[in-house]
Amino acid sequence: LDDVSPGGYRWTQAVLVVLMTLPRTLVELSPFIALLGGIVGLGQLSKNSELTAIRSMGFSIFRIALVALVAGILWTVSLGAIDEWVASPLQQQALQIKSTATALGEDDDITGNMLWARRGNEFVTVKSLNEQGQPVGVEIFHYRDDLSLESYIYARSATIEDDKTWILHGVNHKKWLNGKETLETLDNLAWQSAFTSMDLEELSMPGNTFSVRQLNHYIHYLQETGQPSSEYRLALWEKLGQPILTLAMILLAVPFTFSAPRSPGMGSRLAVGVIVGLLTWISYQIMVNLGLLFALSAPVTALGLPIAFVLVALSLVYWYDRQH
């Protein structure tokens, strides 16, 4: 709400942006939701003595946990589909709406964040994008092998003809040869883009808003052009780590239920569940950020803690099964 202003980002747009990012919030909080949902669902079965009836039919606690796990797998698959085809596109559209509306309250009509790309010895920056998603403020630096600057191009704006061809407008082209500088001014100049075929508005988005398809495409592009891709590889592996963590929380709900099966209420269990869920979520976020900070292996960073929680949850389920 701090960004809301009368001449730009209105409160109705702020409400729309919040609604459009709700699917992303659902996906990110899925482990927490799974734990509380498991505690409530199994708690109701226990309160109504339905778990006792199920166990009298020969079902062990471990088998009950496996049934809950199967339901959890269906839930995580559904969340994966929501993440890929609903949450990611809606979040990107929401950020574009906010960016465009916020820019209306500023002195110019430029929106978005700086983009940059590399192709061999050529480095390109785009200051921002206009409302039509076209580049504004394009700078192209071309270096020799000895890292001396060979040429510099500045274009006021550009029009994207196709994935690879841009028409630069308002061009200043400087060249350095044998210690001499030459300047050429052009109305238009065709340039073979160094950017990936992804939409530039997509590239201006944070990596955690990308779908699996977008992440795969962009990581491949970064690796081909020799650019760092650790942030995006970690985001891709998080797409797998999050469902595993959700399954761990579903398994963890089973010991919560059988630890006090005759409890008259579930308030205390929910309170403990909230604490455990928050600590788990915070621990995972800390682990992911530490992995990015210290350039640790993306699979280990994203999957290590969720797999550890699955093993702990399975151990607790097995222990309660043996005790009862």
Q: What is the overall number of helices?
A: 10
**Helical amount:** 55-70%
Largest sheet: number of strands, sense, barrel closure: 6 strands, antiparallel
Number of strands: 6
Structural class: alpha+beta
Strand order of the largest sheet: 1-2-3-4-5-6
What portion of residues belong to β-strands?
15-25%
Shape, principal axes of CA atoms: elongated
Rg, rounded, reads 26 Å
Averaged pLDDT, please?
A: 89
Indicate the low-confidence ranges by residue numbers.
109-113
Write the H/E string, N to C: HHHHHEEEEEEHHHHH
First-residue to last-residue Cα separation? 53 Å
The number of domains: 2
Protein name: LPS export ABC transporter permease LptG
Pfam family, one: LptF_LptG
Keywords: Cell membrane, Membrane, Transmembrane, Transmembrane helix
Membrane topology: Multi-pass membrane protein
Question: How would you describe what is shown here?
Answer:
It is found in: Cell membrane. Component of the lipopolysaccharide transport and assembly complex. The LptBFG transporter is composed of two ATP-binding proteins (LptB) and two transmembrane proteins (LptF and LptG). It comes from Escherichia coli. Part of the ABC transporter complex LptBFG involved in the translocation of lipopolysaccharide (LPS) from the inner membrane to the outer membrane. Its main location: membrane. With 324 residues, this protein is α+β, with helices and mostly antiparallel strands. The chain has two domains: 11-103 and 229-323, no CATH class; 115-203, no CATH class. Helices cover 57% and strands 19% of the residues. It has ten helices and six strands; from the N terminus they run αααααββββββααααα. The protein has helices at 11-20, 22-28, 30-47, 50-56, 61-104, 200-203, 212-224, 230-258, 267-293, 298-323, and strands at residues 115-119, 122-129, 135-143, 149-160, 165-177, 180-192. It has a six-stranded antiparallel sheet with strand order 1-2-3-4-5-6. A hairpin with a 2-residue loop joins strand 1 (115-119) and strand 2 (122-129). Helix 3 runs antiparallel to helix 9. The longest helix is centred in the N-terminal third of the chain and has 44 residues, at 61-104. The radius of gyration is 26 Å and the shape is elongated. It starts with 10 loop residues before the first helix and ends with a helix. The model is unreliable at 109-113 (pLDDT under 50).
